[in-house]
Structures are given as structure tokens and as C-alpha cells.
């Protein structure tokens, strides 16, 4: 059952004609009527001409305006790199001792970063880390010798882009409290990454059919595509 607050929001907004993001954002924010700072979320609908099982996007985007979320970052590395991890703001830093804690089910973090040599040990914990989406991945920059850079990016607005089993992609580009220009910069960064991924995946025709935007407790609007993705 819809709440009184939700019933006061506009209806059938997703059926409106697509509009440019800068025109939609004021409406999205107007619909943020909860007491907390709602997230601004995107949903990309994959073109149905693509076979779902042929679309396997998994990459990251560094949001220039940040994500507005506090990410708890853990690092598994050699002692010589632990200072770099801590200086960059890592919340948990360890080596073999920390791996044992993970093995025991201690997953009190949002993102795990490691060095290549430690990845050999972590790879044995696939059944623990995999289902939670926490397994480090070289393609996503979470298996690296440059621990400082990886931690800094994770803490300052790096977001994973991954399609679900139906081929669609959902992610947040910030909070209601963000200025419109900051949300637009984040949106453009996502579009640029998807455009690049389309080329890398040799997708025939358009990859994205529709883009919808909403706040976490609001209603959705359709964004007008400004690029062929």
C-alpha cells in the first residue's frame, strides 16, 4: 500500500516524453519529500535487440562530484604497502591475519582491494566473497600495486557499473543535496564510460534503449538521450 506521502507525488511520470537531464532534475528534487537526503538513481534499459546473455558489462566509473556515500574500504596487502593504504584513507588494512578473518566470515566492509600477490590467497575465498560482490577484480582496478590510487578512488566516488540478469543497469549518481551541475557531471561521466564499453563489446546498434531517473523514494522520469550509446 502506498503511503500518504507517495500518493501526493505526480503519477505516470515515466510515460511523459523524454526530457534533458537539466530540465528533469528540479522535478526530481521537488519529489524528494522524505526527511533524509535521498539518492538520485539511474536505470538503463538495455536495447532488446541485444541478446541478454551476450551483454556482460562490468566496469567502474569515477564520479567527478563524488557519490555522496561513505564507503568502508578494506585492503589486503604486504606490510610495505600498508602505510600507503592507511594514508589514502583505508578503513581496514591487513595481510594474512585479515584473510583469516574474512575466511571466518568477517565482511565488515563495502569494498576490498588487494595487491596481485595477495590475490592468489584471496582467490581461494571465492565462495565467501563472490556472492557478496566483494571479490577484487583487476578489470575494476581493485587488484593493483598502486594501492594508494585504488583506495583514493574508492573513497571519493568510484561506482561499479554492472548489468543484472535481465540486462539492465542501475546506479546512483549522487544525492538530492548535490547541486544540479554536480549531478550532471556525474551523469556525463557514466554516459562516457558506457559509450566506451559499447565499443569494447562490439555491440550492434544501440546498447541503451531508455534511461530513467528517480530519487530513492520518488517517481521516475525518462531522460532524453543526447548520444548514441
Main attributes?
229 residues, four-stranded antiparallel sheet, three-stranded parallel sheet, 8 helices, 32% helix, globular
Give an overview of the whole structure.
This protein is an alpha/beta fold. It has two domains: 9-67 and 158-223, 2-Layer Sandwich (Ribulose 1,5 Bisphosphate Carboxylase/Oxygenase); 73-156, Ribosomal protein L1/L10, domain II (Rossmann fold, 3-Layer(aba) Sandwich). Helix content is 32%, strand content 21%. The chain contains eight helices and nine strands. It has helices at residues 4-7, 21-30, 79-87, 96-103, 116-122, 126-129, 147-156, 180-200; strands at 39-46, 58-62, 73-76, 92-94, 111-114, 158-162, 169-175, 208-215, 221-223. It is globular and about 55 Å long. The model has no long low-confidence stretch (mean pLDDT 92).
Give the tally of structural domains.
2
User: What's the CATH topology name of the largest domain?
Assistant: Ribulose 1,5 Bisphosphate Carboxylase/Oxygenase
Name the average pLDDT: 92
Low-confidence stretches: none
**How much of the sequence is in beta strands?**
15-25%
- Helix content bin: 25-40%
List the secondary-structure elements in sequence, H or E: HHEEEHEHEHHHEEHEE
Shape field: globular
CATH architecture of the largest domain: 2-Layer Sandwich
Side-by-side strand order of the widest sheet: 7-1-8-9
Radius of gyration: 19 Å
- Under CATH at level 1, the class of the largest domain stands as Alpha Beta
Annotated CATH homologous superfamily of the largest domain: Ribosomal protein L1/L10, rRNA-binding domain
Number of helices: 8
Number of strands: 9
Structural class estimated from helices and strands: alpha/beta
Amino acid at each position: 500500500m502506498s503511503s500518504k506521502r507517495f500518493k501526493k507525488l505526480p503519477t505516470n511520470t515515466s510515460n511523459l516524453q523524454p526530457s534533458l537531464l537539466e530540465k528533469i532534475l528540479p522535478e526530481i528534487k521537488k519529489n524528494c519529500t522524505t526527511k533524509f537526503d535521498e539518492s538520485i538513481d539511474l536505470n538503463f534499459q538495455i536495447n532488446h535487440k541485444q541478446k541478454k546473455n551476450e551483454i556482460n558489462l562490468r566496469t567502474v566509473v569515477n564520479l567527478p562530484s563524488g557519490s555522496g556515500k561513505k564507503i568502508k574500504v578494506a585492503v589486503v596487502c604486504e606490510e610495505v604497502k600498508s602505510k600507503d593504504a592507511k594514508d589514502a584513507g583505508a578503513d581496514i588494512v591487513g595481510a594474512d591475519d585479515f584473510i583469516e578473518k574474512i575466511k571466518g566470515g568477517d565482511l565488515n566492509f563495502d569494498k576490498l582491494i588487494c595487491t596481485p600477490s595477495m590475490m592468489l590467497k584471496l582467490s581461494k575465498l571465492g565462495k565467501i566473497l563472490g556472492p557478496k560482490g566483494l571479490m577484487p577484480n583487476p578489470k575494476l582496478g581493485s587488484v593493483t600495486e598502486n594501492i594508494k590510487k585504488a583506495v583514493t578512488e574508492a573513497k571519493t566516488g568510484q561506482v561499479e557499473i554492472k548489468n543484472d540478469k535481465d540486462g539492465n543497469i542501475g546506479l546512483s549518481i549522487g544525492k538530492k543535496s548535490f547541486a544540479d551541475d554536480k549531478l550532471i557531471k556525474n551523469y556525463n561521466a557514466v554516459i562516457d564510460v558506457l559509450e566506451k564499453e559499447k565499443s569494447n563489446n562490439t555491440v550492434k546498434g544501440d546498447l541503451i534503449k531508455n534511461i530513467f531517473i528517480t530519487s530513492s523514494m520518488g517517481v521516475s522520469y525518462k531522460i532524453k538521450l543526447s548520444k548514441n550509446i
